[in-house]
């Protein structure tokens, strides 16, 4: 089968590999019909995730059709159409019992990281019963690819951890796919204002279409003043950090209102400055985390009912043979006005 692999210092390569086979009775083999590329895949190619070794198939998002199941898989059978979660979870360990699937003792984020991932014709999914979801009849499969990772991430680590409430003023720093996912799902809670902050005018324009009430281009270094002006000098009730650099975490600390919540979603490669000397007296809460995808069943229902339309995030489509081209488009997202790319294998 064809697979896109990480090739160490040589970057990525489309190669022929043996089709995966069942290794444990709890495994399933899925034929991938649609997958996508995540910012994290770019981090891997940049050498930022040293646990990924040369020859590893990339990708942790996708939908497909069950090809084969192990003897202990009860919920799925060959022919079922499924959504693959970016987080693998056994459903039985202490952390899974707390819905903290990100820290499953025999799973977590392993796909396209510690085991071969979804940017291939077939993938092996361990603990299939808890790591796959049935695709409801009539639901757009491109929309569901967005549910493998970015929608649960923006929702769980941004909106839920930030405790967005009706009437709140919310700032989202970073209007990439994850920030936009937070923007779409924050609206479940009817905040009064959602201010999107980014450097890219195209992304800010998209954010306005997706429901941002105000946008701030922070490239002039005046974002703090602008946001304080927009909030009558109070600051925002919730600041969602969806970039992952010191400057944007610093911005969140400067715009947070008394009693506010800073929800850090971005993956940080460098340490940040924490201004506890200013924050403690303002009753500010700071949260952070790796997505667990335990909100997936609820998000699936909102897509099914039409309340959530994640297909809006798809800007480009490619066949599997064009996956390297898809990476080029995604890597140069601003130039190509790209958000999420769909790679089809049907
Ligand atoms: N916590 C988790 O479980 C989890 C899961 C998935 C992704 N992530 C992380 O979430 C972050 C966002 O992911 P993404 O795919 O949307 O990334 P992305 O790179 O596509 O988007 C980041 C956005 O931030 C903007 N930006 C960059 N510098 C900025 C600055 N100084 N001020 C304002 N905006 C700025 C960019 O223009 C871009 O629109 C990444 O750090 C990613 O690794 C975390
Ligand atoms: Zn991802
Ligand atoms: Zn577990």
Automatic annotation (TrEMBL):
<keyword id="KW-0560">Oxidoreductase</keyword>
<dbReference type="Pfam" id="PF08240">
    <property type="entry name" value="ADH_N"/>
</dbReference>
<protein>
    <submittedName>
        <fullName>Alcohol dehydrogenase</fullName>
    </submittedName>
</protein>
<dbReference type="InterPro" id="IPR020843">
    <property type="entry name" value="ER"/>
</dbReference>
<dbReference type="InterPro" id="IPR013149">
    <property type="entry name" value="ADH-like_C"/>
</dbReference>
<dbReference type="InterPro" id="IPR011032">
    <property type="entry name" value="GroES-like_sf"/>
</dbReference>
<keyword id="KW-0479">Metal-binding</keyword>
<comment type="similarity">
    <text>Belongs to the zinc-containing alcohol dehydrogenase family.</text>
</comment>
<dbReference type="InterPro" id="IPR013154">
    <property type="entry name" value="ADH-like_N"/>
</dbReference>
<dbReference type="Pfam" id="PF00107">
    <property type="entry name" value="ADH_zinc_N"/>
</dbReference>
<feature type="domain" description="Enoyl reductase (ER)">
    <location>
        <begin position="8"/>
        <end position="343"/>
    </location>
</feature>
<keyword id="KW-0862">Zinc</keyword>
<dbReference type="InterPro" id="IPR036291">
    <property type="entry name" value="NAD(P)-bd_dom_sf"/>
</dbReference>
<dbReference type="InterPro" id="IPR002328">
    <property type="entry name" value="ADH_Zn_CS"/>
</dbReference>
């Amino acid at each position: 089968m064809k697979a896109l692999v990480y090739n160490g210092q040589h970057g990525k390569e489309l190669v022929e590999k043996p089709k995966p086979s069942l290794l444990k009775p709890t495994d399933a083999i899925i034929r991938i019909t649609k997958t996508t590329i995540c910012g994290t895949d770019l981090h891997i190619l940049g050498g930022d995730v040293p646990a990924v070794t040369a020859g590893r198939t990339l990708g942790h998002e996708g939908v497909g059709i069950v090809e084969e199941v192990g003897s202990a898989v009860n919920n799925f059978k060959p022919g079922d159409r499924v959504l693959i979660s970016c987080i693998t979870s056994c459903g039985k360990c202490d952390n899974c019992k707390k819905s903290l699937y990100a820290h499953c003792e025999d799973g977590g984020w392993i796909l396209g990281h510690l085991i071969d991932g979804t940017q291939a014709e077939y993938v092996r999914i361990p603990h299939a019963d808890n790591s796959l979801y049935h695709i409801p009849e009539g639901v757009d499969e491109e929309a569901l690819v967005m549910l493998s990772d970015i929608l649960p991430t923006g929702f769980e680590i941004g909106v839920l951890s930030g405790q967005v409430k009706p009437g709140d003023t919310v700032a989202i720093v970073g209007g990439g796919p994850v920030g936009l996912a937070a923007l779409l799902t924050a609206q479940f809670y009817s905040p009064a204002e959602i201010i999107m902050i980014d450097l890219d005018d195209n992304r800010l324009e998209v954010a306005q279409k997706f429901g941002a009430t105000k946008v701030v281009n922070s490239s002039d270094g005046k974002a703090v003043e602008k946001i304080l002006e927009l909030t009558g000098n109070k600051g925002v009730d919730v600041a969602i950090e969806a970039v992952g650099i010191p400057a944007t975490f610093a911005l969140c600390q400067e715009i947070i209102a008394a009693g506010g919540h800073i929800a850090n979603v971005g993956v940080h490669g460098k340490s940040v400055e924490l201004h506890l000397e200013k924050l403690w007296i303002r009753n500010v809460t700071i949260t952070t985390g790796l997505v667990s995808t335990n909100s997936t069943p609820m998000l699936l229902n909102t897509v099914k009912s039409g309340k959530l339309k994640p297909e809006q995030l798809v800007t480009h489509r490619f066949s599997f043979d064009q996956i390297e081209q898809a990476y080029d488009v995604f890597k140069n997202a601003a130039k190509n006005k790209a958000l999420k790319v769909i790679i089809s294998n049907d």
